[in-house]
Amino acid sequence: MSKVFVVAGETSGDLVGSWFVRNKMSNMLPDVTHIEGVGGEALAAAGVKLYRSYSDLNLVGLFEIIKKLPEIFRIMRELTEYIIAENFTHVVFVDFPGFNLRLAKRLKLCNPAIKIIYLSPPQLWCWGLWKLKALQAVSDELVVLFPFEVMWYKQHGMTVQYLGNPVFDRLLPAMHQPHEQLFRLGVFPGSRQQEVELFVPVLSEVIAQLVKQFPTLEIMVFEAPHINKQLLAPLLAVAPGQVKLVPPANRVAMMQSCVVALTKAGTVTLELGLLRVPTVIFYKAHWLTYWFAKKLVSIDRMGLPNIIAKQDLMPEFIQQDCTPINLVAAVNGVLALWQKNGIAYLQEREKFIVLQRLFSQTT
């Protein structure tokens, strides 16, 4: 009999974890008697008893994390003691390697018999091999979300399987449904408070310029779960009535209705790509955090569709290129195609079919 503890430290992990619990876990663990964990609303809705919310762990950036290290290590000790004391047989870690690899190491030291399943493991094909030994030391099995990852991890001596992708599975019905596109821009400021606070000033300027150029353009600001709406208020205030807030419940239909999207790098880029919405990607971090990351990263793309397809499906404006001038110009280019040349705009959408095929051939 299996007693399972799930650890998801952020919104994306909460969603991936809930998909696994609902649809895939019984394939690996058919005899689960109790499931508990760290997560959010999605895992709770999937039947996981929440021991703690992930909100205490949801931090961004090296220097932002350093400030909270004492609290992070206190939570880690608390979780270690609880999981061991309650005799959990399996722990499912979801992404979030900075925290999860350390917690997994502590658990294995306390109880080598505990089974570790790492769902959506660290993307070492991107970040390099420096965490490989740590992952090998604690993981009994990996469950990856991208088909190409299976061969990569097998080549590095790990037990791994691909059970599908939650984003693809969730969006598959919508991909084949007819939908109307309107003269709309979708704006995705981020799913973490620190990100939103950082990007709102840039996005406010972008929106201000766009509403002047396109008085009939609807600008839809997509609200992420657990984000304080007040953080998004400056965006809505740029042009009340023309800029509107989209709650999470209306997400997919509203995404499909947009002519173009402007989003921070992250899982949302994959959603937009699978829905074939032309998208402009941006990202910016503290300069020292970015410098440190560049020393580790072994790929030259940041958007998931670009990485998976191995081509530039979406333009990326990262760090010093993340400016209002660049973002406005990129969005303008897509809007112009939609207004003046329907065929060219359709061709822009059709290039995302390659992304859909990469998943559909293996699921």
CATH superfamily of the largest domain: Glycogen Phosphorylase B
CATH class of the largest domain: Alpha Beta
Strand content: 15-25%
Shape designation: globular
**Total number of strands:** 13
CATH topology of the largest domain: Rossmann fold
CATH second-level architecture of the largest domain: 3-Layer(aba) Sandwich
Helix-residue proportion: 40-55%
| Uncertain runs | none
User: What characterizes the major β-sheet?
Assistant: 7 strands, parallel
Query: Number of folding domains?
Result: 2
Tell me, rounded to a whole number, the average pLDDT: 90
Distance between the termini: 29 Å
What structural class is derived from the secondary structure elements? alpha/beta
What is the count of helical runs?
Answer: 18
* Cα Rg: 21 Å
Please list the strands of the largest sheet in the order they lie side by side: 3-2-1-4-5-6-7
Summarize the structure.
With 363 residues, the chain is an alpha/beta fold. 50% of the residues lie in helices and 18% in strands.
